[in-house]
């Protein structure tokens, strides 16, 4: 699942407040972008062209999330190496193969249905993880996300277990409802704390049978504490 | 992916190196192995150019290519015209017709029509079919032995493997066992 707000800023001006920042790239991949919106649109166009070429070849091949990720990260690194970067940070999420394999094949490399989550930025830096966030989210939301997928690292029961495996078990045990609430919590914290944010967000979910992007909606917030504030510090 | 060569091995070398390059480029861009049919289309397109421009000559080699990708295992024929065809079973080269006749008679015991890529025969069964087809191409006084055959195969657990020289003896023995059990192919259960 992914979440992003609907804001495209012009410096500190909240210029466009109804922007969709999560986009599909093929039936099994979503790309969410922060940074320069025109550069994001350029990357979207490149991805559309790639997928159109694949569609025209029409040989039953399926471009999964990993391939989209490799394509985008090669593009980002190539631009940075020409000292003309695409000023974005992307999170790419999806699956390697859709649940209904068009050819009905059970043969192949067994990579069908494997989930993927990757990050690539303006430098071409890439990494893969179970939780991800950009901007202020990397500071404020990641600790919340990590707590839900790995628990308290200092507690004794977590000392001897393999880190990745523990994360995997924990997030595999999360239901969609729980994940949805966790993302809302993170976005709420970000709205409270990031002075350049907007309380209008979209969530997206991607499964082996396709994707869904919600309509924009607002989170409930409670600003009652503001009444009791006098001056700048208390 | 791998190829078997019939014709000018020098031309086969050029095409093989081109295939390797194309496969590597695809892998770098898409982070997955190149689908076999796309690799074949690449050399088909390349070879066709030589049939339609002045001053050159067509590639003097035919290839049988095997490979596996996300849609399962595949067998393709490449010819100097640039025509690419996919088969359940095939043979090329001189004296290939008798082998092709054998395969035409027997391919339904291991082919699958639903495109599932799942084969009802084991790898060894397929190799024995191949050796029997090959045996039919020999004149009366000649026999298959480990010096005049090379076997290569791919299966769901194995990447392209070449079996040559002494190592082929194991398959020749399997062939003898199969012939001596009344020339009937064991009907294997699905794997």
Automatic annotation (TrEMBL), chain A:
<protein>
    <recommendedName>
        <fullName>Proteasome subunit beta</fullName>
    </recommendedName>
</protein>
<keyword id="KW-0539">Nucleus</keyword>
<dbReference type="InterPro" id="IPR023333">
    <property type="entry name" value="Proteasome_suB-type"/>
</dbReference>
<dbReference type="InterPro" id="IPR029055">
    <property type="entry name" value="Ntn_hydrolases_N"/>
</dbReference>
<dbReference type="GO" id="GO:0005737">
    <property type="term" value="C:cytoplasm"/>
</dbReference>
<dbReference type="GO" id="GO:0005634">
    <property type="term" value="C:nucleus"/>
</dbReference>
<dbReference type="Pfam" id="PF00227">
    <property type="entry name" value="Proteasome"/>
</dbReference>
<dbReference type="InterPro" id="IPR016295">
    <property type="entry name" value="Proteasome_beta4"/>
</dbReference>
<dbReference type="GO" id="GO:0051603">
    <property type="term" value="P:proteolysis involved in protein catabolic process"/>
</dbReference>
<dbReference type="GO" id="GO:0019774">
    <property type="term" value="C:proteasome core complex, beta-subunit complex"/>
</dbReference>
<keyword id="KW-0647">Proteasome</keyword>
<comment type="similarity">
    <text>Belongs to the peptidase T1B family.</text>
</comment>
<dbReference type="InterPro" id="IPR001353">
    <property type="entry name" value="Proteasome_sua/b"/>
</dbReference>
<keyword id="KW-0963">Cytoplasm</keyword>
<comment type="function">
    <text>Non-catalytic component of the proteasome.</text>
</comment>
UniProtKB/TrEMBL annotation, chain B:
<dbReference type="InterPro" id="IPR023332">
    <property type="entry name" value="Proteasome_alpha-type"/>
</dbReference>
<protein>
    <submittedName>
        <fullName>Putative proteasome subunit alpha type-6</fullName>
    </submittedName>
</protein>
<dbReference type="InterPro" id="IPR050115">
    <property type="entry name" value="Proteasome_alpha"/>
</dbReference>
<dbReference type="Pfam" id="PF00227">
    <property type="entry name" value="Proteasome"/>
</dbReference>
<dbReference type="GO" id="GO:0019773">
    <property type="term" value="C:proteasome core complex, alpha-subunit complex"/>
</dbReference>
<dbReference type="GO" id="GO:0051603">
    <property type="term" value="P:proteolysis involved in protein catabolic process"/>
</dbReference>
<dbReference type="InterPro" id="IPR001353">
    <property type="entry name" value="Proteasome_sua/b"/>
</dbReference>
<comment type="similarity">
    <text>Belongs to the peptidase T1A family.</text>
</comment>
<dbReference type="InterPro" id="IPR029055">
    <property type="entry name" value="Ntn_hydrolases_N"/>
</dbReference>
<keyword id="KW-0647">Proteasome</keyword>
